[in-house]
Write a sequence for this structure.
């Protein structure tokens, strides 16, 4: 019995050690705390250079996950140093996390929800592009135009907040296209790219994509996060 207890203790210790190493996705508040407490870390922004220029975490280095040199750039890093990674909503950084794990990085933290969640918590961003940093003008669709689309429509409106690089958004598109065709004249579907309409996305505190917001009678009737097929959408929206 004593040997069994000793063996069990070893297993638990081993599991605890493994949980502390490797990669993990953590909430933004925990991410911020660990980032402040950790020394000699890498802080990697895996978005595009254009996204990076629009605002990033202080001291972050931009290594585009979809760039041709991503893995070559990662291979230059010390695998023994802790790595903090993030993107816009957590998708690309989640994929980057898997790459770093396979390459043998010992400690990797991925920000859950990415920059969208960071902004939702009102945490600060640093702009690397002076022109971007000093710009005060609204970018993309205005809130006034958005309200005209959603609140003054004769038919229900389904707004699709998306991004060109977002995998689940790409999967959702044909489902929405089919839904639009089936309910032509009875339902309006509007696609809004969060990268092209950053001001609107920030003002509405969009925290994840894809995000569907359903307006009925000019008022928000429902939010749907993530991918859903056409049958599920019809059921959720009460379409017959």
């Amino acid at each position: 019995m004593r040997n069994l207890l000793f063996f069990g203790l070893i297993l638990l210790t081993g599991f605890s050690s493994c949980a502390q190493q490797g990669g993990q996705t953590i909430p933004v508040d925990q991410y911020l705390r660990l980032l402040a407490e950790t020394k000699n870390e890498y802080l990697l922004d895996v978005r595009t250079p254009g996204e990076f220029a629009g605002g990033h975490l202080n001291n972050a280095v931009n290594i585009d996950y979809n760039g041709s040199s991503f893995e070559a750039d990662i291979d230059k890093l010390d695998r023994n140093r802790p790595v903090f990674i993030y993107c816009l909503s957590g998708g690309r950084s989640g994929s980057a996390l898997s790459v770093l794990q396979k390459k043998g990085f010992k400690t990797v933290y991925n920000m859950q929800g990415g920059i969208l969640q960071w902004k939702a918590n009102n945490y600060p961003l640093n702009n690397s592009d002076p022109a971007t940093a000093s710009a005060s003008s609204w970018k993309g669709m205005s809130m006034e135009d958005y309200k005209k689309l959603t609140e003054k429509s004769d038919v229900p409106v389904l707004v699709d907040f998306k991004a060109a690089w977002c995998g689940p958004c790409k999967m959702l598109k044909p489902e929405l296209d089919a839904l639009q065709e089936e309910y032509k004249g009875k339902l309006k579907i509007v696609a809004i790219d969060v990268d092209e309409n950053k001001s609107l996305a920030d003002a509405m505190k969009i925290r994840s994509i894809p995000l569907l917001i359903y307006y009925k009678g000019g008022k928000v009737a429902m939010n749907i996060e993530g991918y859903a097929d056409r049958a599920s959408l019809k059921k959720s929206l009460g379409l017959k």
